[in-house]
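FAQ

Q: What does a record look like?
A: Structure on top, sequence underneath. For example:
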């Protein structure tokens, strides 16, 4: 039994496909298949059920793959301990970020990280919350920046900031004249939503729960349009197709100026309006496996995040 064989079975369990697992491990499929067959023969158990369309892990295989992942993490920890003896921050940090945070936090965060810890480059991965949680569990990433709530998976969590939502409406819309807005005023509007899988979609539906019924209602297509990204939804708002909610960090700085600069070629614009009173917010956190040994790297990342500008959010210690 070798660490390489354990790495292969973890990859197959994750990808549910021998070819994709081989690509992820940078080996040929025959090499991977032979190694897994050798391990199965040694253990005298069947780890995977193979069919024409998919690969599934056997019940006993699930336990073995889980233990294999633990062994690989412990083996990696030996290298990390050696590195920490020289420089606790040496080596890349694999960071996951959800789609509705990455484009707005990462540019400043990367600059801060390069300035503060150049010996610790960030290897970045954008994905959905559920996928990032899985990647944390399997060790594909070291830590992740996500928005609560998410399932309790025994992770260590540090609160970063509370981020308020703002309404985004076409500048030609009657609501654009308002200085503040309420969720009640949005109820009669066409609400543009992110697709299923985005946690921010759930956050929007918490503020305007009446739009949840449009998600699976064919007639609701008139009321609910699903965009592939937050920026795509903003373009749809600018085109006058409806309104939406956006997190504060996604609001362009120039959009909040008293007299926003507008390019001549722009045909429609977006007005961002704060909520009246206490706005709806999302809590953004940093999560990592409790078994992760690079404590100094997590602390350095948190410091880099706190050094970011983060306009309009409430920082949490």
């Amino acid at each position: 039994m070798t660490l390489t064989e354990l790495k292969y079975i973890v990859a197959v369990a994750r990808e549910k496909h021998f070819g994709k697992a081989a690509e992820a491990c940078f080996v040929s499929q025959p090499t991977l298949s032979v190694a897994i067959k050798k391990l199965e023969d040694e253990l005298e158990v069947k780890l995977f059920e193979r069919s024409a369309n998919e690969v599934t892990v056997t019940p006993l295989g699930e336990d073995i793959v889980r233990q294999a992942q633990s062994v690989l993490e412990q083996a990696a920890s030996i290298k990390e301990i050696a590195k920490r003896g020289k420089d606790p921050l040496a080596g890349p940090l694999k960071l996951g970020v959800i789609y509705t945070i990455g484009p707005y936090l990462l540019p400043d965060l990367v600059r801060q990280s390069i300035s503060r810890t150049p010996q610790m480059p960030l290897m970045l991965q954008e994905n959905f919350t559920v996928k990032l949680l899985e990647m944390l569990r399997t060790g594909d990433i070291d830590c992740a920046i996500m928005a609560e709530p998410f399932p309790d998976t025994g992770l260590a969590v540090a609160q970063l900031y509370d981020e308020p939502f703002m309404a985004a409406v076409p500048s030609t819309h009657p609501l654009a004249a308002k200085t503040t807005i309420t969720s009640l005023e949005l109820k009669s509007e066409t609400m543009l939503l992110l697709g299923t899988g985005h946690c921010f979609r759930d956050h929007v539906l918490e503020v305007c729960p009446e739009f949840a019924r449009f998600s699976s209602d064919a007639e609701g297509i008139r009321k609910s349009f699903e965009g592939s990204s937050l920026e795509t939804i903003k373009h749809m708002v600018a085109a006058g197709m409806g309104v939406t909610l956006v997190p504060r960090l996604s609001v362009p700085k120039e959009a909040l100026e008293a007299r926003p600069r507008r390019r001549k070629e722009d045909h429609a614009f977006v007005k961002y309006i704060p909520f009246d009173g206490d706005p709806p917010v999302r809590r953004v956190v940093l999560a990592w496996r409790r078994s992760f040994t690079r404590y100094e790297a997590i602390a350095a990342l948190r410091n880099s995040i706190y050094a970011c500008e983060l306009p309009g959010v409430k920082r949490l210690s």
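Q: Is there anything notable about this one?
A: The first strand starts at residue 48 and ends at 50.
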